[in-house]
Amino acid sequence: MSIIATRIDGRLIHGQVANLWTTKLNITRIMVVDDDVATNAIEKSGLKLATPAGVKLSVLPVEKAATNILAGKYDSQRLLIVARRPDRFLQLVELGVPITEINVGNMSQTDKTRSITKSINVMDSDVEVFNRLNEKGVKLVAQMVPSDRAEDFMSLLKN
User: Fold this and answer.
1) What CATH code would you report for 3-158?
2) Do 107 and 113 contact (CB within 8 A), yes or no?
3) Where is the PTS EIIB type-4 domain (predicted)?
4) What does each of the 159 residues of the chain score in pLDDT, given as a tens digit?
């Protein structure tokens, strides 16, 4: 399978994803999965600029991402899937994409969120989605950068 890693990160592609994770995991393609971003030309050009040289970029709506992955389109590549919120990953899993682990990275604070860690803030709807992913056997870990220890996200969520 071509999926090397998956990450929830509100910033999508930035220093941590672009430099640390892609280098550590030897990623050849970053896939941003988001229906809104996929139709936003300005946001897509910003993501292209943030993508490291030599790494390919796909910015796709959820269903197209699932179709491409399941069709084997990226089987020869090392794929990192990034999405802003956990619901995108739940949709991918429900469409049959074999995701076994999700790294919960940065989720920004808003007036509708509560803080789980210094950099992870969730809404009640996110908690429901995390619980559903967990029920489907997806392992959820919190790990900001590769040098950090991966923590069990579900135990952080219950605190």
Assistant:
1) 3.40.35.10
2) yes
3) 1-159
4) 699 999 999 999 988 788 899 999 999 999 999 999 999 999 999 999 999 999 999 999 999 999 999 999 999 999 999 999 999 999 999 999 999 999 999 999 999 999 999 999 999 999 999 999 999 999 999 999 999 999 999 999 986
Which string of b and e fits 4-16 if b means at least 16 CB within 10 Å?
Answer: bbbbbbbebbeeb
Q: Could you tell me the two tokens for 2?
A: 């071509």
How far apart CA 15 and CA 17 sit, in angstroms, is 6
Q: Which residues are designated catalytic?
A: 14
Phi, psi of 135 (to 5 degrees): -60, -30
